[in-house]
Amino acid sequence: MTTSIKSADGPVVHILDDIQALAAARALAASFVKEASQRDRQRQLPLHELEQFSRSGLWGISVPRAYGGAGVSFATLAEVIATIAAADGSLGQIPQNHFYAVEILRVNGSETQKRFYFERILAGERFGNALAELGTRTSQERRTRLGKDGDGFRINGRKFYATGALYAHRIPVSVIDDDGVQQLAIVKRGAAGVNVIDDWSGFGQRTTGSGSVVLDNVRVEAEEVLPFQSAFERPTSLGPVAQLLHAAIDVGIARAALHDAAIFVRTRSRAWIDSKVERAIDDPLTVREFGDLAVRLAGAEALLELAGEAVDRAAAAPDADSVAAASIAVAEARVLTTEISLAAGSKLFELAGAQATLSEHNLDRHWRNARTHTLHDPVRWKYHAVGNYYLNHKNPPRHGAI
């Protein structure tokens, strides 16, 4: 049985457990897939779909049970994201940083902050992000400043890759304080001095809203700032959670590519003349290639589930060993999810034939989505981390990108 609570945008379903969460994701995915291609082709922002998504209660499923949430397993959370991403890659990615913010609050928030923000999340508020910046020496460097202003603070800086900020009620912003320590400030979307710019021009994940956020002397109160850097200075599940969600998005994109390839080959493709068969689905080499993709996808899905279980263990009992094991399990999953999402999106055209390249089918969106999303961090360093762990017994670095 589900119950409802109110938010400013309407009733929000209160999901109680993992089973309800998975069922809600499947129902939404069946709706989201219908116009996914059109949204991508026209870069039509999914405002209506995000309202449905929020009201479904899925954005609150990782809130701990002690604070009124379902506290679903991370394995379930990953499958929810993969299910939505299979319907629409952008809609699968938009809440990634929202769930990241929930996890930051869980591991680093004060009791007062947890009660305050978790209540609002369960009422349907969406959190975006303003973490990364352009023009820095590394992807981890931050220049946005948090300066003292009486009993509060002021923020000045510019962010990019701010996925979800365009649709958010609140925007967590990574900032550097006067002591050079990285903190996280949770800024109201409509606060004075906040300018969210819809300037994302990536050729994939086109409706994620991953553009710019400019912060011009934005006032935040002390209770709106929580520690961020310290979540990586000690063993926490934060990094593995972030990477697990990325892996789930790629699994969803791969599922969509393989699904659409199969439909096209069944209904439109022609058999190659040397196959001596009348239908493309009877071409033995085509069948073999589909089998290869299906096996690789099943392997990626299996590793995603194992990674989710490892993250669950690390979240329940975080220490150097459990967090390292979770990071490695997620890195292993990300290797396969990266490779199968790219392979499925590319092999689709080889198997479906020249007709599949026609713009009216928009099948290239799957490869574009995979290629864009998998650039978040390089898979070659996943291999290095995994190899170093097993060969040299070296734990991976704790910075959120492994």
Itemize the secondary structure elements and their pairings:
Blueprint: E1 3-7, E2 10-14, H1 18-32, H2 36-42, H3 47-55, H4 74-87, H5 89-93, H6 96-108, H7 111-122, E3 145-149, E4 152-159, E5 170-176, E6 182-188, E7 194-197, E8 212-221, E9 225-227, H8 230-233, H9 238-267, H10 284-316, H11 320-352, H12 364-373, H13 379-392
Antiparallel strand pairs: 1-2, 3-4, 4-8, 5-6, 6-9, 7-8
Helix pairs in contact: 1-4, 4-9, 4-10, 6-9, 9-10, 9-11, 9-12, 10-11, 11-12, 11-13
Structure description:
The protein has helices at about 20-30, 35-40, 45-55, 75-85, 90-95, 95-110, 110-120, 230-235, 240-265, 285-315, 320-350, 365-375, 380-390, and strands at about 5, 10-15, 145-150, 150-160, 170-175, 180-190, 195, 210-220, 225. It is of the alpha+beta class. The strands form three sheets. It has a four-stranded antiparallel sheet with strand order 3-4-8-7, with no helix packed on it. Helix 9 runs parallel beside helix 11 (about 320-350). The longest helix has about 35 residues, at about 285-315. One of its GO terms (molecular function) is oxidoreductase activity. Belongs to the HpaH/HsaA monooxygenase family.
